[in-house]
Design a protein that fits this description.
The chain is an alpha+beta fold and 442 residues long. It is 34% helix and 19% strand.
């Protein structure tokens, strides 16, 4: 894709913001020279045209800079988790407050077999087998903007089973070969347990085979979720009262289509397009299918299956399963559609700052690069143009003037309704089965 070059004034403003972000997010780096190389790398991600490789960031003839950056990214043992956690906490305080945590898959096609995690594997997003890395980003998303704050890199079996390959890539002993969805679920659980963030619904697409374990994992930790599922998914329903013996099982598509007479109309605005859309929604109460690997199944979890038709469609085309049972369907639908907001920001901001461009071979290097690309993404959205929403504090440099342009880019874009501002979750709703002290807060 084409990589746009920012005007000089914009890059100056963003560089000033990067100086502030370095002081906020990289305090965990023990040495001043490490923080300095983080600054160099971040400015390179923002300013460098073309592919954001270490060589291109260092510039022609700067071999010593290239070597130092290579050491900082691929070999230096600094921990990326505190940086990502600080970024997430900062965004909750200063940017448009997120409505959800959105899991966005990322596929990085490769020509060789040396990059960590690469392998020939079937990729649902591509609909074919590819030689690639598979990763997932966890984004804090609102209708105005979205920001990646956590990343997972899926490791095919050979990368964890072959000792020599594992050592060469520096893969930790704790890393296992899981599906991309399993990796993402574990990352969300860690964020919810240790990052001290306000609890948000998790929006992600889950394959049929991963769904029982994903539901069980989030239920055990009281994490609200909206899972996009395939219409072929078998779902259990009924089983209450004389008129509905059971339970029954049917594909999600058939169950939703049988309820077409109960559809409700939702009018909304597509992210980034400013064009209106009409969607018809209906829902059905269903029961979770217990995981096959659990010797003693948990009691059935009450869930809601939501289905959507586009305005002219004869059959429903999109399906979600959620444990948020007391919210209007329109709000659940708008939460689910935050994936469109993330896809837009991924294409317009995260790809141009080089999230796919790491060419090193180490596990540590990939995560260092992804962390710095996330901070670069945030600096672009917060510093390029627009204003900070009223009432949110802004980090400023210790001088007489603030950081120019610190705010949300594209303010005012995104989901909305024809009759008013974007619907948002009411304050302090409770998730079924969740105690008051585990509320998620708007």
């Amino acid at each position: 894709m084409a990589r746009a070059v920012l005007p000089e004034e914009s890059t100056k403003e963003i560089s000033e913001l990067i100086d502030v972000l370095i002081s906020l997010f990289f305090e965990s780096l023990p040495r001043r020279d490490q923080r300095n190389w983080a600054r160099v790398y971040l400015n390179g991600l923002v300013r460098t045209s073309g592919k954001k490789t270490i060589r291109n960031i260092a510039g022609t003839g700067a071999s010593s800079v290239e070597q130092s950056l290579q050491q900082f990214i691929s070999k230096s043992p600094w921990d990326w988790t505190p940086v990502r956690r600080s970024l997430a906490q900062y965004l909750e305080r200063t940017a448009q407050r997120p409505l959800a945590w959105v899991v966005q898959p990322m596929v990085i096609e490769k020509a060789g077999d040396r990059s960590v995690g690469v392998g020939r594997q079937f990729v649902p997003q591509l609909g074919r087998t590819a030689n690639c890395q598979q990763a997932s980003g966890i984004w804090l998303a609102s209708s105005e903007a979205s920001f990646p704050v956590e990343w997972t890199l899926t490791l095919p079996g050979p990368w964890t089973n072959e000792l020599l390959r594992r050592r060469r890539a520096g893969i930790p002993d704790t890393a296992r070969s899981l599906t991309p969805a399993q990796d993402a679920v574990h990352a969300v659980q860690r964020m919810a347990a240790t990052w001290q963030l306000q609890r948000r619904p998790v929006v992600m697409e889950v394959a049929n085979t991963d769904l029982p374990q994903s539901i069980e994992s989030f239920t055990l930790q009281d994490i609200p979720f909206v899972f996009k599922v395939d219409g072929s998914l078998p779902v259990s329903f009924g089983g209450a009262g004389r008129q509905r013996p059971g339970p029954h099982t049917a594909p999600a598509r058939e169950l939703i289509d049988s309820l077409r007479s109960q559809r409700r109309v939702v009018e909304w605005t597509r992210h980034g397009r400013g064009e209106g859309a009409v969607t018809l929604l209906t829902s059905a109460a269903i029961l979770a299918t217990p995981g096959e690997d659990r010797p003693v199944p948990l009691p059935p979890t009450p869930l809601l299956l939501v289905g959507a038709w586009s305005e002219a469609a004869l059959l429903p085309s999109e399906f979600w399963i959620t444990n948020i049972g007391d919210r209007p369907l329109a709000q659940l639908f708008l939460l689910a559609k935050l994936t469109d907001r993330v896809s837009l920001d991924f294409t317009e901001t995260c790809e141009p700052v080089g999230i796919r461009d790491f060419e090193g071979r180490s596990f540590r290097g990939w995560h260092h690069h992804a962390t710095l690309a996330s901070v670069a993404h945030a600096s672009m959205l917060l510093g390029a143009r627009g204003k900070v929403p009223t009432g949110y504090p802004v980090a400023v440099r210790p001088t007489t003037s603030g950081v120019p342009g610190s705010g949300i880019a594209r303010a005012g874009a995104g989901l909305t309704t024809r009759t008013g501002p974007p619907p948002v979750l009411p304050p302090r709703p409770l998730i079924p089965g969740q105690s008051a002290r585990r509320e998620y807060i708007r």
